[in-house]
């Protein structure tokens, strides 16, 4: 299934200049990136429409016909952009997806302006720099480059920059496009966010192919009672009862397990990891449950790949400082492994809580099956890796987060997280303070995706 590449003395050598795009294309991608970062497209307070409109103007100036460009969405401030680069039509198109909304960011929480692209100490800083405006800017810059170079793919290339990935809801761009204009984005498969290059202390470890993701689901726990005057406390206090339930959840762990994707991930990782867990990594790939428990305890990311997780993320309770609470509530955010149902997780939580006065309400999200590990995609990734980073293997991964790929998978469009942008495994800042991406990695990712898409859309 996967061609394994042994690590060699090449690992860690200086990168050749060929890993970077031509200077003109670097300038173009940076200019687009800056424009996107500085457009305030926060999920709650911002708008994606200015980005979609600005990109459309760039594409028209680059020679794309207006008939192949669409800007629009569910509401005026939540516009998406779809552009089609015409090929020979020998095969179904490839969809190149990125979202242009971002998680909210407050200036007072950051050490610099989150809505200003800042280049500092070898990094690009800004909200959305790693999630997901880097990939959005790269898709557009590369598409313009293909056009300028006269590249003639054997299939259409479709780029879709979409709204409201971060919060879902009624204005999600991928859902809206599937419902209203499926033909605009229908494709053989999709390349999306979710798979990064993984590095540590400047050393590239592996290039990820995200083929599966967990289901995001929120459960609301509530305790109601009559309340009363705080000078007359009673044992049945809603806050105490909720706290006891949360304590039981905190001590509980769902069972560990693997599937095709995570078995491949740990098997491959065992062949390149140099740390103390290498023997257990191989055992996990072979299905050893005791090794899974040890690996889960060794690393939060591995733990999340191996089991469903549930964690308290929000609390509320009481209505006055001098009154017993009539309501105590908490949000429990669960990331559910593929193949497990929301109902089974709810049933488990109810058993763990073991208190009939603690109710559970579910806000289910969309689950989706894994995408098959396509040999053509794996081969193309290996080829691009060999060209840019000799010795760095492709590793399939399960995303412990959530992307819009779940909607596409359920619509019959296999979706893969592929970026080629390397992020240090100990410095992942998406959704957090001072989000950033290494400048070198941004441009290397531009070259990687340029080569990968070109290989996947050239006559076989």
Please give a structural write-up.
There is one protein chain. The chain has 460 residues and is an alpha/beta fold. The chain has two domains: 17-212 and 369-456, 3-Layer(aba) Sandwich (Aminopeptidase), CATH 3.40.630.10; 219-363, Alpha-Beta Plaits (2-Layer Sandwich), CATH 3.30.70.360. It has 14 helices and 19 strands. The protein has helices at residues 23-37, 49-61, 133-149, 173-180, 182-185, 238-251, 260-270, 278-285, 289-298, 300-306, 342-353, 375-388, 405-410, 439-456, and strands at residues 69-73, 79-85, 94-99, 118-120, 123-125, 157-162, 189-192, 197-200, 203-213, 215-224, 228-229, 309-317, 323-324, 327-336, 359-363, 394-399, 415-417, 422-424, 436-438. The strands form five sheets. Strands 1-2-6-3-7-17 form a six-stranded mixed β-sheet, with helices on both faces. The longest helix has 18 residues, at 439-456. The radius of gyration is 23 Å and the shape is globular. The model is unreliable at 1-17 (pLDDT under 50).
């Amino acid at each position: 299934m996967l061609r394994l590449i042994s690590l060699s003395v090449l690992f860690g050598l200086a990168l050749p200049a060929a890993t970077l795009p031509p200077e003109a294309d670097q300038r173009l991608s940076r200019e687009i990136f800056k424009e996107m970062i500085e457009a305030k497209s926060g999920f709650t307070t911002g708008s994606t429409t200015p980005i979609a409109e600005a990109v459309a103007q760039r594409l028209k100036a680059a020679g794309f016909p207006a008939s192949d460009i669409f800007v629009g969405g569910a509401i005026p401030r939540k516009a998406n952009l779809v552009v089609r680069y015409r090929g020979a039509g020998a095969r179904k198109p490839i969809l190149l997806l990125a979202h242009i909304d971002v998680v909210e960011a407050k200036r007072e929480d950051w050490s610099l302006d989150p809505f200003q692209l800042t280049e500092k100490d070898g990094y690009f800083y800004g909200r959305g720099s790693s999630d997901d405006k880097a990939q959005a800017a790269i898709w557009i810059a590369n598409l313009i480059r293909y056009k300028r170079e006269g590249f003639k793919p054997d299939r259409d290339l479709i780029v879709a920059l979409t709204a409201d990935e971060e919060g879902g809801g009624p204005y999600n761009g991928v859902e809206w496009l599937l419902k209203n204009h499926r033909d605009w984005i229908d494709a053989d498969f999709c390349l999306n966010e979710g798979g990064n290059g993984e590095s540590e202390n400047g050393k590239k470890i592996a290039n990820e192919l995200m083929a599966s993701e967990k289901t995001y689901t929120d459960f609301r726990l509530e305790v109601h009672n009559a309340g009363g005057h705080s000078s007359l406390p009673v044992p049945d206090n809603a806050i105490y009862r909720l706290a006891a339930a949360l304590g039981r959840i905190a001590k509980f762990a769902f069972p560990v397990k693997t599937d095709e994707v995570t078995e491949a991930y740990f098997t491959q990782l065992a062949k390149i990891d140099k740390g103390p867990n290498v023997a257990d990594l191989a055992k996990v790939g072979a299905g050893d449950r005791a090794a899974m428990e040890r690996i889960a305890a060794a690393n939060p990311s591995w733990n999340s790949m191996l089991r469903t997780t549930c964690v308290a993320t929000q609390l509320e309770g009481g209505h006055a400082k001098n009154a017993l609470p009539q309501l105590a509530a908490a949000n429990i955010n669960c990331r559910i492994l593929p193949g497990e149902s929301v109902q089974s997780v709810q049933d488990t939580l109810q058993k763990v809580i073991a208190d009939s006065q603690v109710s559970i309400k579910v806000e289910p999200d969309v689950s989706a099956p894994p995408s098959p590990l396509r040999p053509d995609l794996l081969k193309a990734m290996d080829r691009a890796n060999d060209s840019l980073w000799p010795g760095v293997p492709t590793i399939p991964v399960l995303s412990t987060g959530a992307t819009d790929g779940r909607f596409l998978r359920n619509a019959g469009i296999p979706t893969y997280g592929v970026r080629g942008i390397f992020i240090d495994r100990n410095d992942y800042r998406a959704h957090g303070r001072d989000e950033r991406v290494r400048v070198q990695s941004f441009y290397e990712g531009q070259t990687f995706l340029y080569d990968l898409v070109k290989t996947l859309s050239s006559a076989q």
